[in-house]
Design brief:
The complex is a heterodimer of chains A (114) and B (112). Chain A contains no helices and twelve strands. Chain A has 114 residues and is mainly beta. In chain A, the strands form three sheets. In chain A, strands 2, 5, 6, 10, 11 and 12 form a six-stranded mixed beta sheet that branches. Chain A has a four-stranded antiparallel beta sheet with strand order 3-9-8-7, with no helix packed on it. In chain A, strand 5 and strand 6 form a beta hairpin. By secondary structure, chain B is mainly β. The radius of gyration of chain B is 13 Å and the shape is globular. The chains are: A mainly beta (114), B mainly beta (112). Chains A and B meet through strand 5, strand 6 and strand 11 of A and strand 5, strand 9 and strand 10 of B.
């Protein structure tokens, strides 16, 4: 069975500060890992993904995440927050084959302070 | 290019009324299709997924049902809505051979 835990349902950072959103997962098989962003009343947009290979993955809008197998983590970071980064972020895990049913975390709402 | 459509965008329905939400995908063939519900303050709950026409798998027991009458069409239905059916409904797809889910714009359902 797979599960995802996102620590912190709400995170506030100042504009220009480091963004760190935490995601831990459990999986009995090699997982695929994803981060999505959701703006109010919109669908989810894929930020980045990890499947195989390089454990540090870069995504859109300056975000990146590092897959750490020993820590079962896939934390999302951005060096400098922009006001436009204010949104809800979801971490998801999927098996690496089959129907690719995602398990989503409960989300982290990021607030960027001027 | 591939796009996904959902309609209606918003819907207000009384308790006990029927429901039909539609999702269509363009620019791809034989996608995996998914219905999720997002309740206020909660994450995404997978409701149904489909790997082909007429093939529906249900993830959560409830009064909702899904159908896939055509390759790129996915419909979510209910015969009698409950208050607890309120939420934001999202359709997603994976193209054949892929593993990234792409989401539609969603339908906001309010049951009164």
């Amino acid at each position: 069975a797979q599960s995802v835990t996102q620590l912190g349902s709400h995170v506030s950072v100042s504009e220009g500060a480091l963004v760190l959103l935490r995601c831990n997962y459990s999986s009995s098989v090699p997982p695929y890992l994803f981060w999505y962003v959701q703006y109010p009343n919109q669908g989810l947009q894929l930020l980045l993904k990890y499947t195989t290979g390089a454990t540090l993955v870069k995504g859109i809008n300056g975000f990146e995440a590092e897959f750490k197998k020993s820590e079962t983590s896939f934390h999302l970071t951005k060096p400098s927050a922009h006001m436009s980064d204010a949104a809800e972020y979801f971490c998801a895990v999927s098996p690496s084959s089959g129907t690719y049913k995602y398990i989503f975390g409960t989300g982290t709402r990021l607030k960027v302070l001027a | 290019s591939q796009t996904i459509h959902q309609w209606p965008a918003t819907l207000v329905q009384p308790v006990g009324s029927p429901l039909s939400l539609e999702c269509t995908v363009e620019g791809t063939s034989n996608p995996n299709l998914y219905w999720y519900r997002q309740a206020a303050g909660r994450g995404l709950q997978l409701l149904f997924y489909s790997v082909g026409i007429g093939q529906i798998s249900s993830e959560v027991p409830q009064n909702l049902s899904a159908s896939r009458p055509q390759d790129r069409q996915f419909i979510l239905s209910s015969k009698k809505l409950l208050l607890s059916d309120s939420g934001f409904y999202l359709c997603a797809w994976i193209t054949g051979g892929g593993y990234e889910q792409y989401f539609g714009p969603g339908t906001r359902l309010t049951v009164t």
